[in-house]
Amino acid sequence: MASSGLARLGIGTWQLGGPNYVGNKPTGWGAVDERAAIKAIHRALDEGIRFIDTADSYGAGQAETLIGQALVGRTEETGTLPIEICTKFGNRRDANGQPTQDYSPAYLTEAVEASLRRLQRDSLDLLLLHSPPDSFDWTTYDPEPFEALVRAGKLKAYGVSSRSVYGARRVMDAGFGSVLEVIYNALDRRAETILWNDPAASAYRFIARVPLASGFLKATYLDKDPIFPHDQYRHYLPDRDRDWLVASTRQLAFLNELEGGISASALRFCLSHPAVSVVIPGVRSDEQVLNHIEAARLGPLPNELIDQIKVAVPDVPSHWKPA
Q: Coiled coil where (predicted)?
């Protein structure tokens, strides 16, 4: 039986999509070793992780394909803890190969069928709109095509992976779906006040994404400046964002003194909030999986450390907020 921490630990697979260039600019995490990727998924399953987050745009289907290959022969072996896959749709290429967003009923059906083929499954556990604009008009967006897929057995639940917590708040206010994937980590805690203090939050299951602040919550960056490969999206982060993330991570250096170090402590922070149903740190190696497992084993952070985090990094930069 999985522990309560492990039951709320999943894995993210953006890292398994490769560089995923749009024009000459990567939107992914660089080259990936496919055998290492499948090994990492197998390790997660063997250790008891039962939640896998992905998207059809991660490597134009590459991440979904690798998951499908890794799950062959494993989907029926989990007893009372079935494997749950959450995928996303809406980011596609137009006829000229340019990136566009499409959440239409026609593309919804096309995307679901394509994801099912790549994942080698008969139905999707969770389907989320992938980063719609925060200004998206939910009052005119019809949930019936999603409900029809639920009735047809193609889909179990649906919701939104929000671009920011402000977009997630609009989804929650409109009552669309039952699942929200939101940014939440020790540096960016806005979900606590913007979402989880509202009674409407009780109608949603929340998935915490970017729990390691895009990998900046890492011991390496406590005394070394990050240098990212050119085939990785982090290489192109604006200087002011990269500088703030590095400086803020160093403000939390006290977390590195705990067992497992700062990265494990950052995951424990996410697992400390009762509103988080599952947290999805990215993986590309079985070593990373084992590190995440160790964080779950250690359990939530003590309240005094959570308070210390909030004093050390009181808020996000003003330019991350609406004008």
A: none
